[in-house]
Structure formats: C-alpha cells, structure tokens
Amino acid sequence: MKSVLTDIAREAGAIAMRHFRKIDEAAVERKTTHRDLVTFVDKEVEQYTFDRLNREFPDHALIGEESGQVSDGIGGLFILDPIDGTVNYARGLPHFGFSIARKEGEKVTHGLTYLPAFDEMYYAEEGAGASLNGEKIHVSEQGTISDSIVATGFACIRGELKPDGVPIFNSLIYKTRDLRRLGAATADLAYTARGLFEGFYEMGLSPWDVAAGSLLVTEAGGKFTGFAGENNPLSGNKILATNARIHDELQKLIEEALQG
Is residue 76 packed enough to be buried (19+ CB in 10 Å), middle (13-18) or exposed (0-12)? Predict the structure, then answer.
C-alpha cells in the first residue's frame, strides 16, 4: 500500500508543479464564492489519481473533492484532495498539498499528505506511526498554551457559517505564543504531527481536508477530536488536532470563545 500511494503522490505532485506559478487568472474557476476556487490542475490531478487507484485497487470506493463519489466498492474507501490550498496554488504560494486517506468503515487506516513545493511526503498507517520522507515524526512536547503556536484557517468564512471562527482567533491571539494561518489544512495537520505547531483548529472543512491528517497526528502521538458538540470530527465540521498535552485546555478555550 505505501509504495503505491507514495508513487501516486509523487506523480500527482509532479503534475501540480509543472503548472505551478504558470496559471493565468482566467484559468481559475469559482465553485461557489469568490473564495472557493478550482483550477484545471485540481481536476487533472484528481483524474490521474482516480485512474491509478482504480487500476491498483479495483475493489475500493473513491471520493474526491472535485468529483464527489465516483465509484462503489467493498474493499475500503479512498478519500482524495488533489490540491488542498487552491487559493495558495493559484497565486504561486507554496503551501498546498495532495492528500489521500484510506478508510475501513469509520476508521482511517492509511493517510498520506504530500507537499510538492517542499518535497515533503508525510505518511501514516494505523498502529505503525507517522513519518516524513521515511523518518519517524512526533508531536511537540510543549505543555503550556502560552508557549504554543496554534494554526487555524477560515473555511467557515468561505462557507458563510455562523458562528464562525473569528471569536476564537480573537481570544487565542492573546493566550498563545502566536497563531498561524497557512491556507492549507493538510499542511497544518502535517506540521502539527511533525511538532512545528502544538495545535490546529478549524470549522467548516470537509472529510478530504482532514482524513489523512487526522491519522498523521494520532500516529505521531497527538490527539484529534471535534469541539463544541461535534462528535464526528472526520466530517471536518469542527476539528481540533493537538500534541495531546494542551488538548483539553485548548478545547476549553475554544468553546468558551464560541460562547462569548
């Protein structure tokens, strides 16, 4: 499984990099709002990946951000985000990623995130740990909120959700060492697994944004849950990923901010 998925990811990344910083604004489409973008490269990468997965794992179902569910199967489910961080990608910013996860039932068994602009391949299997370019990775050992760097994003604004995440940001900016907003949840989750961030929270994401990263974080020793009543974090609706040490305190602060 690992060799096939990493091979697919490298070729998918090569497709993305061939067009990186060469896309004209006219080639960028709007899916729902001016913030929700898709390029022809998103579609090309997704089609390539689905073609490969169908050949390698014909008994598996497939679902992707651009196509929705394209096939049924009894061997498991692959969840794909061809280019997470399309706004970054379309503007020539390097924080974008290819992400693929495999599920059996409600459990993620394999997760891969590839950041092609940095040639960083993150991979995790259930019970086998997480790695970056073949080397084991672990979450940060930081245990205090005030010394923690926490990442977030604003998919909630794009989705016009109410309440949104702005009150959380306004609260945590005073309580953490700093906040970061990279614009790609796949990168945020990979960096949390790697120990660059102590945590990441966001509202209004989708399963393809978080499935692979959830396994990266937990296999690296961290914790991945929902918040504010969300009991199915793989939906992406309200997700909190941390190094586990700050999890309960950060979850409490987030929920207090939402309550006003």
Answer: middle
pTM higher than 0.85: yes
Give Cβ neighbours of residue 62 (< 8 Å, ≥ 6 apart).
50, 53, 54, 69, 70, 71, 73, 77, 78, 80
Is 222 in contact with 241 (CB distance < 8 Å)?
Answer: yes
Nearest CA to 118 among 180, 186, 66, 220? 186
Which among 190, 231, 230, 181 has a CA at the least distance from the CA of 210? 190
Model confidence over 94-121: pLDDT tens digits? 999 999 999 998 899 999 999 999 999 9
Contact 214, 224 (CB under 8 A): yes
The tokens for 100 are 């693929």
Number of H helices and E strands in the chain, helices first, is 8, 15
Which run of H or E residues covers position 107? strand 107-115
Look-up: residue for tokens 């039932």?
105
> CB of 21 within 8 A of CB of 116?
no
Query: Please, what are the domains in the chain?
Result: 2-136 (3.30.540.10), 145-259 (3.40.190.80)
Query: What's the pLDDT band for 20 if we cut at 50, 70, 90?
Result: very high
Q: Apex CA 158: angle with CA 215 and CA 38, to 5°?
A: 75
The owner of tokens 């489409």 is 29
CB atoms within 10 A of CB 68: 8
Check if the beta carbon of residue 74 is closer than 8 Å to that of residue 90: no
